[in-house]
Amino acid sequence: MFAPYCDGSSWTGDAEAPVPTAANGTGQGRPIYYRGRRLLDALLDSVLAAGLRGARQLLWAGCSAGGLTTYLHADYVASRVGAGTRTLALADAMFSLQHEPATPLSPTFPQQMQHGYAAWNATGGIDAGCLAEYGRADGWRCLFGANVAPHVKTPLFVLNS
After folding, report:
1. So where are the chain's domains?
2. Of 74, 79, 125, 156, which residue is 20 to 30 A from 65 by alpha carbon distance?
3. 3-state DSSP assignment of residue 20
4. What is the pLDDT of residues 33-51, one digit of tens each?
């Protein structure tokens, strides 16, 4: 199974309304639909119906932004495929730390993640254990690999430089 990049929210988005965008200063940009979590559910429904339900093993993996997706959804995917399938997770990158940059940026990466968490309506797509630790208001902190990894119960291998 190959799952492409999606909507930029690491498959967490569940925004009811599309988010308007500007297009090259014209104000006529196409809206963005942050509905990655719905797409993840549809993808899982599809591959489970196609035979994944009977699999003995599953490797849930991703690289770059997909690495964050691996952390965020490993336990959820394992629960969806069921106890009869041994699920393993491989996160290739995105063991990111929540810190301010050495040089000033506007906005900083933590600020971008905080904004994204709200814009995407990502609460329902965040690892449940991490969300329980940080709470709904600070759930954006779970969009950092180093914060969410300790909560992943599925056997997890991290590959990061």
Report:
1. 36-159
2. 79
3. coil
4. 899 999 999 999 999 999 9
pLDDT in tens, 74-117: 999 999 999 999 999 999 998 888 887 777 777 888 999 999 99
Angle (CA) 129 39 122, round 5°: 40
**Would you call 28 helix, strand, or coil by DSSP?**
coil
In this structure, the dihedral spanned by the alpha carbons of residues 32, 34, 40 and 41, taken in order and rounded to 10 degrees, is -120
Mark 15-52 as b/e (b = at least 16 C-beta within 10 Å): beeeeeeeeeeeeeeeebebbbbbbbbebbeebbeeeb
DSSP string, 112-148: HHHHHHHHHT-GGGS-HHHHHHHTTTTGGGGGSHHHH
* Residue 107, token pair as written in the block: 């906005």
- The answer to whether 113 and 144 are in contact (CB under 8 A) is yes
> Which residues make Cβ contacts (< 8 Å) with residue 134, sequence separation at least 6?
141, 142, 147
CA pseudo-torsion sign 159, 34, 43, 139? positive
Distance, CA of 82 to CA of 76 (rounded, Å): 10
